[in-house]
Amino acid sequence: MATVLNFENHSVIDGDWFREVNLDWDGYSICLQVEEVLFHEKSQYQDILVFKSKSYGNVLVLNGIIQCTERDEFTYQEMITHIPMNLHPNPQRVLVVGGGDGGVVREILKYDSVKEVVLCEIDQMVIDVCRKHLPRMAGSLDDPRVNIQVGDGVEYVRNHPGAFDIVITDAPDPEGAAEALFQKNFYQDLKSALKSRRHCQLSRCVCATTFTHIPFILDMATQCKEVFPRVGYATGNTPTYATGILGYLLASSIPDIDFTKPIRRLSDEDLKRMDLKYYNSDIHTASFVLPNYARDALKHVIDT
Amino acid sequence: MATVLNFENHSVIDGDWFREVNLDWDGYSICLQVEEVLFHEKSQYQDILVFKSKSYGNVLVLNGIIQCTERDEFTYQEMITHIPMNLHPNPQRVLVVGGGDGGVVREILKYDSVKEVVLCEIDQMVIDVCRKHLPRMAGSLDDPRVNIQVGDGVEYVRNHPGAFDIVITDAPDPEGAAEALFQKNFYQDLKSALKSRRHCQLSRCVCATTFTHIPFILDMATQCKEVFPRVGYATGNTPTYATGILGYLLASSIPDIDFTKPIRRLSDEDLKRMDLKYYNSDIHTASFVLPNYARDALKHVIDT
Description:
The structure is a homodimer. By secondary structure, chain A is of the alpha/beta class. Chain A folds into two domains: about 5-70, Roll (Spermidine Synthase, Chain: A, domain 2); about 75-300, Vaccinia Virus protein VP39 (Rossmann fold, 3-Layer(aba) Sandwich), CATH 3.40.50.150. Helix content of chain A is about 25%, strand content about 30%. Chain A contains ten helices and 14 strands. Chain A starts with a strand and ends in a 6-residue tail after the last helix. The mean pLDDT of chain A is about 90. Chains A and B meet through strand 4, strand 13, helix 9 and helix 10 of A and strand 4, strand 13, helix 9 and helix 10 of B. Strand 4 (about 30-40) of chain A pairs antiparallel with strand 4 of chain B, so a sheet runs across the interface. Chains A, B: Catalyzes the production of spermidine from putrescine and decarboxylated S-adenosylmethionine (dcSAM). Has a strong preference for putrescine as substrate, and has very low activity towards 1,3-diaminopropane. Has extremely low activity towards spermidine.
């Protein structure tokens, strides 16, 4: 390739390298070498790119920002899912807001207790593209326990009070369509959407990292804390996200929940049967331990 | 800037972006935006570049590979130093092999028990350049407790049996001058260089990450384990290293040492007085917890 393809956020494919330029990470970017562009179109909501990379498998890029690669997607799909799942004794109905790639759904389906997973993704094109180019993730969407709702997650949540044991928000950064997913009203609706029992959790992926976005995380956690009595923050390593680390915000209606202690410890046999490559019960606990710079900044809001 | 500057390992400055291309991380690279090249010369041993970046402060690059940035250097300088320091009840004499930037020395000097730090760096030019352009690290080299030896670390270690409480190897990847620092003979000499008491540790930074270099880490840990009865492996987040994570190999002559439990817990007051921004006693323990893919691969060699 000799052409330069320009994407949102100033990301480019120049020669055979994709360079992610995200103004949120000023002066820093990750590059992946491109073997072939498999798909590039603008949907009603966003710019969708899928390319085959030289060493990270197929890569999904939304609005110029890497969402997942086949090689390291397991790191965050497992963390965003198995932390809340193992804080609940009997998760039966789980809602995923966003997450049209199907990776989170795949992880949720590994629990026999699960009777229904609702995936509420706003963009049909993301689902279609992932079914074609990221089948190891989107293959999960064919499971009979999965109920796909193409539509606005904010509205869906508002219209389903008391319906879910766990809600996982797997959405991109707060711009465009996803902006409403980061507002206090949404947290209030989420709280209502959770069953009115003691065991309900919310988990969300936070692309903003402690290293670069403490004020953003603090603001998000503060809004969440105004609605939920307990809020936790964990981190894990995902190589193709800026700074190599992703954050996970947890919230619960249970006033004395200890997010750091899974109520179900997975045995080595469980890990093998569930094909878990990242999450284990020790990682669960360790992921809540933060370096001083983050711990000190978040200590008044975070309960972990 | 419009020129393209080419460095070892195919790294380049193209326009105003430095792109690290390291064949060890095939198809992946980190870019930092450049404001000004402050220094670029070939020493007797390596290609040395320092540039002022847009958002990570001054950056030291050896043979095309980012060694440290002013913004995130604390993450690894603290981890490589304070883990072994807090496994020793009374560290008095510490050897640093490599580490000419002075960052590790700065961290070691934070302990009142320390009487002497020997820095054995092969490349005088690295020391000179860091004194000028990375003074927050290299300023430590003026401390009267510091003894700078410009020379071959392998030889220095061989010639100083029984001299040190702790040895920290802070060297680049095993190529060129640093190759001998990754061979079994070196581990044997290191073991001899440690005092013949019960409390002696070796700590080394491992740029190869679990995500990409399991065979390399396994080989290194195996060689180390043939010499030392106990070997441990910890990780920590450093944004400007490939994949965002760095590994730390620990070794000890103490057959029943538990690397995961610091024998000295630092209070909040200690952390403040020592200006620690990353390391704390909980991070110490948590850093030894590995994701399944790494834990399973290393479990027969690693004692943590």
